[in-house]
Amino acid sequence: MSLLDELNNDFDSNNENESEKETQENIEIEDHLKVDNHDTLSPMTFEEKSLFGFLKDYENTTLNNNSNFIFKYEKDILNIIDKPLHEEADLYLLTESLTVFKDQIFTLYKDLLASYNYSQELSSILDNDPEKFCQTLELLINNKSKEVPDGSCLLNTSTLTKEQVLLVTLQLQNMPPITNNSLKTQLGALINKILKLCELQKKITNFIKIHSMKVTPNLCNLVGPTIASQLISHGSNLKQLSLMPSSNLITLGQDGKQKKSILYYSSFVQEQNDDMWRKKALRILGGKCSLALRVDYLKSNTDGKLGLQWKKELENKIEKLSTPSNVTKIKPLPVPHDNSKKKRRGGRKLKKIKERYRLSYVQQLANKMAFGKEEKSVLNSFGEEVGLGLSTSRTALVNNSNNVGDFGLSKKMKKRLREESDKVKKYMLDKGDSFVLENPDTESKDNRAVNGNIVSSKKKDGTAVQDTKDGFDSWYNKFT
């Protein structure tokens, strides 16, 4: 045999060994998968698990067809309830089991509605309550006579109102009696399971209400034992809940669509009428709940007085927020008196304001008229005739000492305006003198005196010449 043949034989043997190993590994994987599938699907796994293990793996399993395995843990639940001393872990275990019972009651209730044709109308009358529906349907099954059963006996056995009992009796008249034995046994088995689960659920809720008052007294007084137990069940332990901020606490147990948390269903939040006020109440309640959880975890107040105190504070706070603000009363005007009021002294500010808005000297003269003389008037921009009064007289220009316009001006500007007004006055007086004098070239300044309306001067021969204001007025009227 050549060397090439030996090498080929070696490669063939190695390939055969590798293929054998791969087949063995595939067989082992398939066996392992079969075992895993058997563990998840076989009902024997539920029997081997404890109550804690069953509740832990409940989300990954479906118990629609295996509802009998829930009753296997009835003894464990009753043992926990009947224990003389309870731990915090027992409360968590029972609160988790409540969700299992609710789900299973709902699935059995759906099966019951599907198996009986006349159940939809009856369930709508009873507000889709499984316990009430089972009690009324049991009355129809146990009826051996051909007559219609009387629904008045339901008043003693169930929590139905009088209106519901009346509607049920009317509905039972339209429903035919159940004569099929196989249907009776099927419905009876479902009814017994639902009623048994409801009784067990009531025992658990009563235990949680009593026991949660011992673990979290302040929280129970604040939101109630049922809400407190639901909060504890959602949190892994009391320590983690106490460390949780209030913003996260109000979102515990939120639904996917409605986004309503556990605290949203508390009585304090549900008492509010509007959604806006409910959100405000939920936010305020979350802060107080976080404080109550910390107090209960540290066990600094075991009486629960702080919870009651905080509840009153919340009620007062939401009442203050909801009440509208007081409308300010309009003060009526005082009764006018005939007696004139006393003069009140004004300060510097009032004095300045009066000076700023008072009438000028020319405006005051415009409101006056000379007796027996015709008043001059002008047309304003609106075409209305406005009287000038005495504002066109010589005194309006010469004696205008009321500088109203210079209020609020700087000192420099006031000085400048004063100088300009003095120049105008001087110019007007000089013009008036030159008009009145007969020979102004021969006039001496020493002999000239201007006092009011009289202007005096001397001629060459020494005789004095006097003239009144009439000459100046006739000259002034030419320019006005």
TrEMBL record:
| Keyword set includes Ribonucleoprotein | yes
What GO biological process, any one, is recorded here?
A: spliceosomal tri-snRNP complex assembly
Which residue windows does the record flag with biased composition (Basic residues)?
A: 340-349
Cellular component aspect of the GO annotation: precatalytic spliceosome; U4 snRNP; U4/U6 x U5 tri-snRNP complex
- Please indicate which superkingdom the organism of origin belongs to: Eukaryota
Which source organism does the UniProt entry give? Saccharomycodes ludwigii
Alphabetic keyword roster = Nucleus, Ribonucleoprotein
Question: Could you tell me what this protein is called?
Answer: Nop domain-containing protein
Sequence ranges of Basic and acidic residues compositional bias: 18-27, 458-472
